[in-house]
């Protein structure tokens, strides 16, 4: 059933995998150029982590490293606020009813009209417990989202959250976690969703992670920024 993935975000030519605490950006100006002025829309069902991710984008910090080139090589680690990147982050209000009537998605479709980056969150832990229910809801959401996107040339991120809450699954090592994620990404349902969004000039990315702490959030942000400008 469960199948995870190998996660790598290419930033400044370096493949970043796994542990967020070990990751550091190298060029603030290059990153800012990628996202400044971009409108980011975060969508998803209740309790998927939208507000947590939004708050981190607005208030969190990312790590930079600068290497001294004179004498003994030294690496200086510094922090910069994500909000200083100059992006416009919006959290769309949650729908009260998902009966399948298109009008229920009116707010979502309106939010997507001017989106430059689209992020959709779903709970990976709930999918493990009840594949059918989560897949049906995700399928319904994506179908309505596609009506607005229609091959729009923007990066789209489908992110399974709450990876730390998977019942009966524990990670003794980072290698085990990466293996699980690799299997999840290769699940037929998720591969199908991704391929349907990858039409015309559109580019969709699938990722799984945790929002429980700064390391988990930082890793997700690294992944998102790493795909910008591909």
UniProtKB/TrEMBL annotation:
Gene3D superfamilies: P-loop containing nucleotide triphosphate hydrolases. SUPFAM superfamilies: P-loop containing nucleoside triphosphate hydrolases. InterPro entries: P-loop_NTPase (IPR027417). It comes from the Bacteria. This is Uncharacterized protein. The lineage of its organism: Bacteria, Pseudomonadati, Pseudomonadota, Gammaproteobacteria, Moraxellales.
């Amino acid at each position: 059933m469960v199948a995870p993935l190998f996660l790598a975000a290419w930033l400044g030519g370096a493949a970043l995998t796994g542990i967020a605490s070990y990751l550091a950006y190298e060029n603030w100006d290059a990153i800012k150029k990628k996202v400044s002025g971009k409108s980011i829309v975060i969508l998803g069902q209740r309790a998927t982590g939208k507000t947590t991710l939004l708050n981190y984008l607005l208030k969190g910090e990312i790590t930079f490293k600068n290497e001294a080139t004179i004498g003994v090589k030294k690496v200086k680690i510094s922090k910069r606020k994500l909000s200083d990147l100059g992006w416009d982050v919006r959290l769309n209000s949650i729908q009260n009813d998902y009966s399948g009537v298109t009008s229920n998605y009116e707010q979502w479709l309106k939010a997507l009209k001017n989106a430059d980056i689209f992020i959709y969150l779903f709970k990976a832990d709930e999918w493990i417990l009840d594949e059918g229910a989560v897949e049906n809801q995700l399928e319904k959401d994506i179908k309505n989202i596609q009506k607005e996107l229609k091959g729009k040339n923007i990066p789209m991120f489908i992110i399974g959250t709450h990876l730390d809450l998977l019942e009966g699954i524990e990670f003794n090592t980072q290698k085990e976690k990466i293996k699980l994620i690799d299997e999840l990404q290769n699940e037929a349902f998720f591969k199908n969703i991704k391929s349907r969004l990858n039409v015309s000039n559109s580019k969709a990315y699938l990722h799984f992670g945790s929002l429980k702490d700064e390391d988990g959030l930082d890793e997700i942000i690294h992944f998102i920024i790493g795909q910008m400008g591909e």
